[in-house]
Amino acid sequence: MTTRFHNYPEPRKGPDAPYKHEDVSVPVLRGPSLAIGASLIHSWEFLQNILWRNAGLLGYRKLTALDQYLPRFDPAVVPNSSSNDSNENVLSSESLPAPSQRRGDSSFWTSADYHQRYLAGELTPTVVVETLLPLIQRDGKQRGKYSIGFVESNVEIIRAAAAASTKRYRAGTPLGPLDGVPVAVKDEVHLKGYKRTLGSKLDFKHGIEATSWCVEKWEEAGAIIIGKTTMHEIGIDTTNNNPNTGTPRNPHNSNYYCGGSSGGSGYALAAGLIPIALGADGGGSIRIPSSFCGVYGLKPTHGRVSAAPTPSLAPSVGVYGPMAASIDDLALAYRLMAAPPPASLDALASGFPSPLTTLFAPSAGKTIGIVRPWLDRAEPAVRAIFDKTLASLQSQYTTIDIDIPYLPEGQHAHALTILGELASGVHPSDVRKLLPHTKLLIAVSGNKSTTTDYIAAQRLRSLLMSHLAHLFTTYPDLVILTPTTPLPGWKIAGGEADLAYGVSDARTSTRNMEYVWLANFTGCPAISVPAGYVAETKMPVGVMAMGEWGSEEMLLGFARAVEAGSVEVRAPLEEEGWVDVIKEAEGKLNGSSASKL
């Protein structure tokens, strides 16, 4: 592996450990009881100790096998491009494969639909922006119909970007397939001219007035950032329930959450507002919205680059990744944003090869690995769609049973790592300013864990990475397939009261992340693909494929195979929360002076 990768784990089969899962036993708190309980727990250490003991997150410390592994604090594995990175293999961003237009009324609009209309003079980026702004703006008491998914839109910056793009199209010099396409980014990223609150009432900008590298690459390609999207406060849970900013309801069924923590980005995509958005993965935040909202999500091997050497609140576990309404748009967005930055910005990420280089040629061997006891944790509606998807792939892939040791214990180790690192990014004096649910998690899980707990978690990370390396070297081009989440959506059980006060439901949160945590903890790339819908609730269900470090292109190919074989697509226009932006923009253009737009 020394010729293909830097920092590749030692391929080493882990211990034989039968799968055994026990659900966490922490009480659900909601409404006024959550606010009162969080304040008491934050103030009284003996209550913190009781909850910490009952959470059951430290079972992994009893694993004697951990003594045989050194702790691994950073899961980054860097593909070595020295033998493949040649001039003839590197594409320019302008020559990237352009996405296809939507197939008909049963699909979302793609970036190509905007691009082709701009080229034909049927629309301009300016008229698209002027169509979107009234829908998403949050100015004083003026709230657009879809503004619940956004925290801020800088009108002056947006209009200037649209005007520049319109001018390029009129001159016949567009920058490429993304020029003039509206996109949105999660509040977690740095964006010049915008606040950075991480969904809180605090300032996490840290004095940085710059744009994150990955977003800068989109802007250089001509994309128009129409605003920052809402997120779960500090990215600490998976509903996107946020009384600070308001909680977007799922466009497929308003009784359900969009998922989180990148729920605002998922909402903007599922509502048809944009074809591409940016999320951030701190434990599944990219992929859970893509499952609950019926869109695509990619967690890359790397992508954690920001505007400063310390990229986010929790740099060792936070990764930016694209989300999109089509697989073509997902591929385009990833290939542009994942360009390696200069070493002065991020020394580690600068060593990654450019995604515009052909690194992984198609292979004849295609293998799907499944862990059957793990799959059995999925709810019946989810499992039925997963099984149908797996059956549709049998003509192209060989399916094998695999074992991965200590999956429940690994999820606990991952949770402790995430919570500990998130807590370290909030000054103790600021904790009281956070929402009750966030305050509770930081007071208990974030603060009660010890250095010994943290080191043991990193030893388990090392064990899991070595075992995965063993699987990937034994079965080249292996994809490990699971549902994206075992749940067919997360219902807003308490209705408006839950949205007003928030909810603390550790058991459901843990269930929700039961499959997505592994890719995050080990640094492996993963892709979430829409696979079907639950007929009774209209809620989408996704499947998630995880591959070897650096296998993003293989995963994009896998997603195309899923899309071709099993996806049940329903017309977006039938959804209660859908807006047809292109149709409305065409109507606006026809009713206005084209010379002004």
From TrEMBL:
Q: What one GO molecular function would you report for this record?
A: catalytic activity
One of its Pfam families is Amidase
Residue ranges for the region (Disordered) are 78-104
Locations of Polar residues compositional bias? 79-95
Q: Which PROSITE patterns match?
A: AMIDASES
Q: Which domain of life is it from?
A: Eukaryota
Residue span(s) of domain Amidase: 157-556
Instruction: Name the InterPro entries for this protein.
Output: Amidase, Amidase_CS, Amidase_dom, AS_sf
For this chain, the family text in UniProt reads:
Belongs to the amidase family.
Q: What is this protein called?
A: N-acylethanolamine amidohydrolase
